[in-house]
Amino acid sequence: MKTLISIIFFYLPSVFFGQSKVDTQAWIKEKIQLNGYSDDVEVFHKYMVDFEQGNLIIVATTKNIYKGRETTIAPQYSIPIKELGEIRFEEKPYNVWLFIKIGSGENMISRKDDLDNSITYVDQVTLLLEKSIVKDNLPNRMMKAFNHLIKLNGGKIIGDTF
Q1: Which DSSP state fits 82?
Q2: Contacts of residue 13, Cβ cutoff 8 Å, sequence gap at least 6
Q3: 3-state secondary structure of 43
Q4: What are the CA-CA distances from residue 75 to residues 26, 58, 60, 121 (Å)?
Q5: Which residues pair with 58 in a beta bridge?
Q6: Among 113, 110, 114, 138, CA closest to 124
Q7: Rounded Cα distance, 123 and 106, in Å
Q8: Cα(73)–Cα(150) distance, rounded to whole angstroms?
Q9: Beta strands in the chain (DSSP E)
Q10: How confident is the model over 106-148, as pLDDT tens digits?
């Protein structure tokens, strides 16, 4: 009897409520961090992801090597999850671009420059991910995870009219 009660207590919430906020955040974090695009020669994109007080925090490190000269930038984005309205993937010849956009179109995403600590505000962040994510249907799965996370944070999903 105790086993049955334990199964009901731990199993049923996941059936009725889906993945928890923590589980969803961990899954999104893992997928973005593992799949930053690199051509292994000149261009390297690496992402560190975290979640704080209803915000998605992304440190987007981009390293370019051209004619032996290396340039690295690493701005930090703070994205209010509740305000997200569009998560879109666009497949390119060598990678996949992930667009994370504010629903209202307002500049609500803070971008902290790593060189001078200046802060600007934008309405969209674009991440470059490995092309291999397409074979695992990761773009569709990530869109579902983001939509679930937006709802868990009290936001509304803005869908296509058609």
Answers
A1: G
A2: none
A3: strand
A4: 21, 8, 6, 12
A5: 49, 77
A6: 110
A7: 6
A8: 29
A9: 43-52, 55-66, 69-73, 76-80, 84-91, 95-102, 109-112, 119-122, 124-130
A10: 999 999 999 899 999 999 999 999 999 999 899 999 999 999 9
